[in-house]
Amino acid sequence: MKWTLLIAVGATVLFLVAQLVSLWAVRRVEQVPYRVVERLRDLEVRAYPPHWAVGHHTLNARYAEAAPMGFRRLARYIFGGNDLEERIAMTAPVTLEQGDRGYTVYFGMPGGRTDHDLPVPDDPTVLVLERPSTRMACVRFGGRATDARIAREVERLHRALAGSPWRAIGPPVVMGYDPPWQLLGRRNEVGVAVERTDGQG
Q: What is the pTM of this model?
C-alpha cells in the first residue's frame, strides 16, 4: 500500500512538472502580433497587422475533424515539406476560420518572413498567403475546444458585442495556443472581425 501511494504521488509530481515545463515552453513561442484597441466586458478588440501565413482549407464542418487534419498538413510544411526542405519555427495561435464549406486552418509565419523568402509547399493544398490587417473582437476560454464549447463561446462573444460600438463583419474564428498534450492552463479564443458603428475609427 505504501509503495503504491509513493508511486502515485511520484507520477503526479512528474505529470505536474511536465505540464509546467510545457506551459513555459508554449508561452515562449512567437505569437502573431496585435494591439489591444479596447476592452469591453468579456472581450478585447484587437488590431492585427498584415502578416504572412500558410493555410489549408478542409471541407470538414466540425472543428474536431478540421483541426487535426489542417494541423497535420501545415505541420508537414513547417517541418520540411517544402521545396527547400526548410524547417520553419512554429508560431501561435493555430487559427481556424469558419466558412460555408468547412474551415480554413492557418499558421502564422515568423516575423519578417514574406513570400519572397518562404519556401514553396510540397502539398498543393497548402497555400502561402498574406493575411490582411483586421480588427477582431476576441473572448478567451480554457480547457478543450470542442464544437459545443465553441458554439457557446461564439454566443458569448456576440452577447458582449450587443450594445457596443462594434459589430461583427466576418465569420467566427477559433484560435488555439497549446499542443494537444497540454492539459493545464490551456488558452483558447474565439474571435470575429469587427468594425465600429459610430464612425469613430
A: 0.83
